[in-house]
Amino acid sequence: MSSRLSVEERRAHLIEAAIGLAEKKGVAGVTTRDVAQAAGVSLGVVHYCFENKDALMTELVKALSMELRDSVDADETVWADTGTGKEALHKLVRQGLELMWRNIEATPERQLLTYETTTYALREGESTPAKLAIAREQYKFNDSTVADVMDHCRDATGCDWNIPLPQLSRFILSVIDGIVLRWLVDDDSDAVQAQLDLLAEMVTAHAN
């Protein structure tokens, strides 16, 4: 890796290397030495960018979450000329869920990794509280990401949510978690489409 890369570029490169390793061998099996070798850098570079493996894993789960957020934001046509009112909001929410789903469906290994990261943090957190913080940060970041998207949907259509946004985003994230986990089990994409239809209707019902 070029020495001219900025710290942020180095961090991104190391995170991507960690994701690739974790997809192959699981989160628990990844070491900072493995990441250094996969990224083609010294172990010192890894520890310069991340204090320890826990810090790297925290940024890893954020990167996975941002991939889903970016999949919604990437198609600018979705956000253009949306119209106003609840019907427009419903259409926009459903389109956003569809864009997110396309990313999920194309990356099953990465989706499995998000659940592995959570269970790893919870299991190891019994003896190491710092690891429990990985899972909590993961969901805190995901809640914020979903809330930002719902904020964008509200502003684009001139609607208002009639329940607190943090409550709504937590509900949406919980449902998506379950949908994706069930899909990883039974690989039924048709069922997912029906569930996303239902989720969009349930979300829109909480808007004025």
Automatic annotation (TrEMBL):
Keyword line: DNA-binding
DNA-binding region per Swiss-Prot/TrEMBL record: 31-50
Sequence ranges assigned to domain HTH tetR-type in this UniProt record: 8-68
Domain of life: Bacteria
One Gene Ontology molecular-function label: transcription cis-regulatory region binding
Annotated InterPro entries: Homeodomain-like_sf, HTH-type_TetR-like_transc_reg, HTH_TetR, Tet_transcr_reg_TetR-rel_C_sf
PANTHER family: HTH-TYPE TRANSCRIPTIONAL REGULATOR PKSA, HTH-TYPE TRANSCRIPTIONAL REGULATOR RUTR
Name the UniProt record assigns to this protein: TetR family transcriptional regulator
Organism: Nocardia coubleae
